[in-house]
Sequence to fold (146 residues):
Amino acid sequence: MKKKRTTAKSSLTKGADSAMKSGSSSRPATSGTAAVSSGKLAAGALTSSGESATARWTFLTNHSHVLILLSRNPDAVLRHVASQVGITERAVQRIIADLEEAGILEREKVGRQNHYRIITDRPLRHAIESHRTIGELISLMNVDAE
Fold:
């Protein structure tokens, strides 16, 4: 008589396998805290200040926020821009690199500081708004700033 050969999985492996099949995480859910995934708040989660995560979105992107701030102050220090937008200094550096690569922003070194010049006749990048220019966006946003 032949013996049936079986392999035993550890309970940890079994639990992970069943969680993967069901699409759920093997981490326990926490109550009373914001559900965070990849650094972003899950929809409906509460922030530490008690506001809803859905109240945190804005109509403009961080790229446009940085661009608008630099249009108001072309000699701005990145640390100041980062604190006003609510992102890290490194994120501002990446955004400025993106804007330079797209031909929207030029950087000139003046002594130890950077001076930024915005190319206002460039079209906006998305097909829906490409009939408008960077200059039109900035003038719209700077109406109350003057």
